[in-house]
Amino acid sequence: MKKYTVLTLITGIAACVALCIFSIYGVDISADETTNTLINDCIGRGVAAVAIAVIILLCGYKNAFIYKRENYGKALLWCIPCLLVSAANFPFYALISGTATIDRYSILWLFILDCILIAIMEEMLFRGLLLSILNEVIKNKPLVAVIAESAIFALCHLFNLLSGAAIGETLLQVGYTFLTGLMFSFVYVKTGNIWASVVLHAVFDVGGKIVYTLGSGTFQDTVFWVLTAVCAVICTVHIVITLYKKKLFEDK
Q1: What is the DSSP string of the chain?
Q2: pLDDT in tens, 57-73
Q3: What is the pTM of this model?
């Protein structure tokens, strides 16, 4: 870590907080509330992503973007159970059965862009930067670093209370984001860069937010929870076996 890292981090974190506040409160760009919110989110998170990328490079963690472990294709295959968890978050059955609908197809592209930018920004900040720092601070204990980083990732979602989110809903989000944070971190560690975890993160957010943002109806039905539970169990067993065999934190 370079000697200017602390100052860089303080400056970067301050900038990110300011940009997140902007994305919450924003400015009036469109007369349509949903469109306006998505545009503000894209601006705030897009600029934040650029700022975080610069910080990562200044701190000497460029491997977060370009490093690939040996047998990268095999590492990507390892991520398939994790992809199932992200894909299961999409309301397939609710949309097919008609209990939920997507009404705003005209701004679907803007919604997807917002989800991609959220994924890029958060994966850069928490996996590319924070996990890299924790790996240096907590030497020879990569699993502890992953757990600590995932806990911080989860607790940061308490800031959603500032935008008016309900306490119960926010606490539930903190719980499941800790688990998804662990999954994204393991994918990052296994593949050696953030891009696979960015894809999984974006897919997860698209599925979880599409009805709420662009449609209406109930989508977390019995089929949704059963599918989510099955995929989560498969993924958990997969990761635990890999950890047991000590093949997650090795370099190859």
Answers
A1: --TTHHHHHHHHHHHHHHHHHHHHH-----SSHHHHHHHHHHHHHHHHHHHHHHHHHHTT-THHHH---SSHHHHHHHTHHHHHHHHHTS-HHHHHHTSEEE--GGGHHHHHHHHHHHHHHHIIIIIIIIHHHHHHHSTT-HHHHHHHHHHHHHHGGGGGGGGT--HHHHHHHHHHHHHHHHHHHHHHHHHSSSHHHHHHHHHHHHHHHHHHHHEEE----HHHHHHHHHHHHHHHHHHHHHHHTT-SSS--
A2: 888 888 899 877 778 88
A3: 0.88
